[in-house]
Design brief:
about 230 residues; 10 helices; elongated
């Protein structure tokens, strides 16, 4: 099972007000285990960077000025996520921006299934704070690197939080046990499938005797004698 933990950074709070995506970060999970096959892109928003947004993520207009436009990375992004389930904290925000950006460059909308970890956390911890920082404190996840928001860093942290929310460590352990059981069964099946008729000997009796004589000269108790005893 493939899932993609995703986060974006933007110039503001609403694409309807002309705000744009400036960073996309994704972390791949296979059977709830991070693979290291991540996706990370900065995008030139072709507009100024409001001071409020800059204080959140630290991405300046100057830094983003030589980065590709969203339309130039959208196909690579789509090829990466494919039809995988998307794991997003406060999904309506990020999906709203991504769908708007895709519409602006005349690209198809995303049709992926989405798991919103805000909603998931509210079910798991009703009444508790469910910000990413609050969940990190609850689960003892180190987020000391998070002095500023960053799409890839936040995705990496969210992946850890998501695994805690679904009991991912136990799930991964169960998957490992199932794999071991299947392997044991396959081994037993192979052992049970003995040949109905032994293969013919490739050596004649003289050749076999010559080999026995050679082995006898090797040492007082050569390992080959055990083999001959079984044949």
């Amino acid at each position: 099972m493939r899932e993609i933990v995703l986060d974006t950074e933007t110039t503001g709070l609403s694409p309807a007000s002309g705000d744009r995506v400036v960073e996309i970060g994704c972390v791949e999970l296979i059977n709830h285990i991070p693979t290291g096959n991540n996706f990370h892109k900065y995008c030139n928003p072709e507009r100024d960077m409001p001071e409020g947004a800059f204080k959140v993520h630290g991405l300046s207009e100057e830094f983003l000025s030589d980065k590709p436009l969203f339309k130039d990375v959208q196909q690579e992004f789509r090829d990466y996520i494919q039809d995988s389930v998307l794991i997003i904290h406060n999904a309506p925000f990020d999906m709203g921006f991504l769908q708007a950006e895709l519409e602006w460059c005349n690209a198809p909308r995303l049709e992926n299934d989405v798991i919103d970890t805000v909603q998931l956390a509210r079910k798991v911890h009703p009444g508790a704070r469910v910000s990413l920082d609050a969940l990190c404190r609850h689960y003892g996840i180190d987020n000391s690197r998070r002095t500023l928001h960053g799409a890839l860093l936040d995705s990496e942290i969210l992946a850890e939080v998501y695994l805690e929310l679904i009991g991912g460590r136990q799930v991964a352990f169960s998957l490992a046990q199932e794999t071991t059981k299947e392997t044991d069964i396959q081994i037993a099946q192979r052992k049970a499938q003995a040949r109905p008729k032994p293969l013919p000997q490739l050596l004649d009796e003289k050749q076999r005797q010559n080999h026995k004589d050679f082995v006898a000269e090797m040492s007082d108790a050569p390992l080959w004698q055990k083999y001959w005893a079984q044949n």
